[in-house]
């Protein structure tokens, strides 16, 4: 795998290229080397899985077109990560995998993986932490053939701290506290929220937070509030990460594309669009501290 980060410089001979928890940041991307799916790949995977359906079996003569096994995509991904060395010495365990098959794996297709780090957090044991990743398998035309998420438990370089940087996990409590601090002196935010008495929820599959607001001020930041959120703005961790680390705040464009949805009081959500835009601007300022 190659890096689209300052970490492209090869490690000196004899030194590890493995990354520790603190080496990751939201918006970090890794790319695998391209490979071509072959008949031999299907045969070898069938030897392990024992799935020899005709559509996966070269020479069966009964399938109009040979296609790879769906789980081949995940297996090959984890192999490519290990081969890259970026987690060879720091990986402790895989925690989960959520995977989607968007298009067939066609024999002869040139494929590669793109990994986007969407955030990380230290566990109760400060010597380790969880890295959240969004993964895509793409063909040579940029078509997303498969995609999913996979969290991993990795070693931390610094086991003496229990505090994470605020930028590490978008929508986490430290991130939200830093966002509120960014907004503290914003007259535009106070004006936009002056008449709102309620709670805004922000959520992804990786983290969620609620902001209790009264008379233009955020008076509480919590995972849960007594009355729950007035509304919750929810998106995939990939969408949040790209929104917070992209070149501009394109929230409205992404919302119109369906990357975000709202549950609860949708009318109040529409009334607070300007305030949400300001919250996202503040979130971008916080998150960019990790990217830089």
Structure description:
- The chain is α+β, with helices and mostly antiparallel strands and 292 residues long.
- The chain folds into 2 domains: 2-155, Roll (Thiol Ester Dehydrase, Chain A), CATH 3.10.129; 173-291, SCP2 sterol-binding domain (Nonspecific Lipid-transfer Protein, Chain A, 2-Layer Sandwich), CATH 3.30.1050.10.
- The protein contains 8 helices and 12 strands.
- The strands form 2 sheets. Strands 1, 2, 3, 4, 5, 6 and 7 form a 7-stranded antiparallel β-sheet that branches. It has a 5-stranded mixed β-sheet with strand order 10-9-8-11-12.
- A hairpin with a 4-residue loop joins strand 8 (197-203) and strand 9 (208-214).
- The radius of gyration is 22 Å and the shape is globular.
- Residues 3-15 have low confidence and may be disordered.
Q: Summarize this, please?
A:
With 292 residues, the chain is of the alpha+beta class. It is built from eight helices and twelve strands. Strands 1, 2, 3, 4, 5, 6 and 7 form a seven-stranded antiparallel β-sheet that branches. It has a five-stranded mixed β-sheet with strand order 10-9-8-11-12.
